Records
---
Amino acid sequence: MEKTPGCRPQLERLLGEAEGDFRNLLRNPPPCSQDADMIRKATSEGIKLPGSDTVTTLSASLVEESLIVSDLFQLNELSSCLLLLHGEDQLPRYPGLTRGLVAVLLYYDGRKSLVQALRTLIAGRPGVTWCTDTQQDVAELVQDTTGSLMTQHSLTDTILSLLSSLDWSQDVSALQKHSALGDPQHVHTLSTLHQDIRQGLADCLYCYSAQSGLPAQAVIRIIEFLTKAGPGTAQGHLDGVTSALLMSVLAALDVSGPGREQLPVLTDPSFIHAVSGELAKSRKWASPGLLAVLQLAWAASLAALRQDPALAAVLGDGGALEEDEMFVEAALEGRVFHCLPSLLLTSSAFRKEEFYLRRLHGVLTDFLSLLPLKVKDLRNKADDAARNQLMHEQEGIQYTVPLQAQHFSQLLGCLASLYKGDPLSLQLSELYWCPTDSASDQGRHAPTKQVALYKFVRLAGDLLMPSLFVPYVTMLTGLADSDNAAPHCFKLLKINGASSSNVCLDHFFQSLSQYHGNLQQSSRTSGPDHTIYRTQPLTKGISPQEVAGLSAVLDLVTVLADRSETARVAMAEHPGWSLVPTVLGLLACTVPTSIKARLVALLTALARSPDIVHPLWQALEGAGL
């Protein structure tokens, strides 16, 4: 609504007209035998259509099509006739289609518009996740209207029922039966509209939950629905509908941030018991990873409540709040950190949603900062397994890492996937870095959570076992992938050089130089290869594990060079690192294609600084590349 005085009466009138449509969401006016008789007689006697003062005589073909459309959509015959007449008016916009095919498009488009209107209305509620730039009186009207739909008219049940019944395969079967499908473009448009309807319905629940939370019964109904939901894409990702429903539950369980004291999770005395009981039930899930994600988020919320004395006193149920560790264990048994990347974090659709990313960021950072002993336990188990693996390899015995020892490396992988690329420039990974300069006031007054996360980043790299090297460096790559975070990561890697840590720039570039030297020596001793068939492997002199480590290191230094001017200049000009000559030398050697591609990407990142371009070009010419 425009921010002009007196707009509330207009909105109130419009909402009054649409109230029945919102209450009976996507419910068609049913067929009526009397209306069907009126339509049939309209070929001779005519009919006065709604909105018209004159009697209109209908053609026999229009009457027949009206009855077909009525049977197809279980729609009132008069509404079907009006739909066809509107389709006939729109024919110039759809060349090559008949009025019947256009009417089918308009039917789906109308349903989508209704759902989108409801979604926009709910998203306009004042709440705790985003701000709405609306007048106070309009905001109150929107809040009252949408709140009534949720509490008095069971909007959650209505939407979940629609999501269960709206099946594109069934719609296609009915459309084919009634010859209501056109060319492939027509079918594709209908499919897209159908998917948009389902997505809009799920978004309605998410928007309400994100702004105002959800009652306990609504949360339980959505969880019951999710038990039957599986990955909706060929890649194993959740589709948009399931993602929205999952995020609606995660938003309802969120207890962090200002203004949440009035949400159901903190005001309803039965909420904690109800949700805990639902997530602890032993039943089969179509996608067990969904349950594990919900259990992890709920454990983080319980831990936050338990450590806040004021909230714990208000809730007055310490026993339920002590179940956080139980839900963490259940989530780990469900392989939560194994499932998160495949279900959500690597999905392009998920990474386009700002508030989805922020909520997952909140869940993971709460877990790391509120449950440090559990994180330490995961690290200890990973270290024990790494030592056992080394001993078995020395004896030539194959060793399978147990599940309990995989969680820490998978956690590092989740963090890398979440922050990689920072597609929406949210700078979320900055929370993991604290200024290391002792003279910095910002470092002394950093929030407790930020200090805990920075401590996790540093301690995770201490005394690093070989099997954790690649996951840790990959995590650093994700955490450094923003303009403000990269300088902090660069400084940490420089500081590590003063200790015995192998996660430092000195060690990285020394390893690159050593690899280059080994390849040069190998090429001199073996002589040139005069055949067109390669007789020696590209990875000669380097193991597959070392290739993986080298790839991870190159990814990290490329991100640092791409994101930080200071890092670029230091890498190009540091005399002890000799990075540019080493990279150019490796490009001239026989190295795996994946390594060579990363070397080129590193040179590209270094060339972003104008002062480096000319010396870099001279070095390229000197190397004969």
---
Amino acid sequence: MVLWLQVTRDRHHYPTHAQYEMSRLLRRFFIRHAGMDIQPDQPVNACPCDLILVVNDGKEFKAHRNVLSEASPFFDKLLNCDMKENKEGVVRLEMFTDAQMADVLQFLYNGDVQIATREDAENLFAAGDYLLLSKLKSFAAEFLAKALSTLNCLSTFHIANMYFCEELICSTRKFILSNFTAVSATEDFMNLTSQEVEEWIASDEIVISAEEEVFKIILRWINYNRSERHVEFGKLFRHVRLNFIARDFLLNDVETNDLVTESKECFNRVTVALTRLDDAFRCLAPRPESRPRKSLEISGIAMTGKAEFCTFFYVPEKDQFFRLHKRDRPKSLPKHAHVISYRGKLFLVTEDIISTQVYHPSFNRWCPAPWTKFGTQLKLIPGLQILKEVLVVGNEVCFVVEEFGEDFTWLWRFNLDLNSVIAPTHPLDKKSVCAVAWGKHVYIIGGCKDAEVLRQCSRFDTMENKWQEVSDLPSARCRALGVSTKEKIYIAGGLDVGWDALFSCQVYNVSSNAWSSIGNLNCCGVKSIVVCNELLYVVSSSMFPYIQFLYLKIECYDSEKDKWMVKKNIRCNADVAMKGKASSFSFFKGNFDKLKPVRETSLDFTSDDTGSMFTKHFYDWDLILENY
């Protein structure tokens, strides 16, 4: 019997879609049930099969060497070498079932495959890995990713790791982290090894409603087989971030637990945590659990105004300002107030550096900075010197200081661990620079000398105490603001050679030592540039014509569109004028709840009431902004 059936992969060879689908169904039927020799673009009887594939139940499938060799590196190597499979024309694949092989052949000949169940996807995933069919693995991985649930995600994660599928590993891991509380209650989680449990609970990425959940998850896993698992408690307990557990829960549930009391190390950790919670003014030294999980953080931008000694916290995800506790009244009104974030606290540094205050989010209060204690007298600004920038590099706080009327810039440093001052050896012979910290370096970008705006850039190695030149700016710029993230330094604002305000932004790649440009800002008057939630923000302000109000803008950079988008656009009392640098900061949600939101209208900023940083006058803001 001769079959004159023409079968091809190209749907354009068929007059209608129905004929194309019929061809595909016939092809699959021949492969699964008859072992027919089907070669693309050839009549099925014109090119006989020259290879037999034998699966685990002894069933044979006929195929073509050239088709399999072309589609699979596994078959290409096997059938083009001096091995018995090549000589005999028989390949035994006893790890495959007949259903698996039928689907694999369908994929090899058609270029696609229909997956009906999760079990089919797992089988094809294994087959694709064995036969080096990356596209087949991708098809199966896509199906498994779409079929994820709290009940099967851990087994899928195991399969993805077993077959080194990075795409499926990432998607499954993200699902587990996002649904960690529910996943941790499943039977699969109870059957994990202690090492696997430890890897999950050590992650910053697990999404939980409170740190107390981690402690409960550990207890549940231990109690699933307490006789064997109780010895693992200490190793797991060290990943509970006790500083972010409510004091009552620590006292009533953790400190009294028998697994905790039986371990001196565990009990001591609880005691130390309770001590820290009871003391607002200690422990500036770094500690392993100084940050909460990301799901328990609220990130925003901390900035300060000159009136009423207030510091504000803008939360982009809520698009709202919050007010921190008032600071102690300084002896004189500062011209500049720089906010920096370090070791989970905010430092507010003015030109009177020895009066610097530190904000403790756990208690929503301020206290003196460490260099004001223990008899330390940090006199960084003798005579007519101006504090221009404050940076954090490792365990040091760096102060960039200019001499008034002179083209000199000094770099002073204070080591927080040693409580000691490191004086500069010599100044830079320019001023109005942009200073940015990255790694162990302080980058000094642009500036001016003898009224000439410069392109020159350099960096200071705080470990080796030496300067090094880096690539110059594409164009001269002074008084710019900068921030670093992911081996890149972003600068914005400042003045050009004609002393005109700049709207342009530039990026320095630390690895390649090269500059590039990104989209322009919407307005000038840049006061600070920060990175918050991995997004770039610029805070700028300008005065309204003829009236004493500030026009405050917060812009966010959209990297996909290469465009700055206005996130916040408000009028406020001129007394709120930002004085100095803002900083990104992350609050533990338990501490953030203590802050009061700022009303954007109603009360005058200088009121003794709960206060607003905005005006008490009620205008049609949209109309006013359109006119200006």
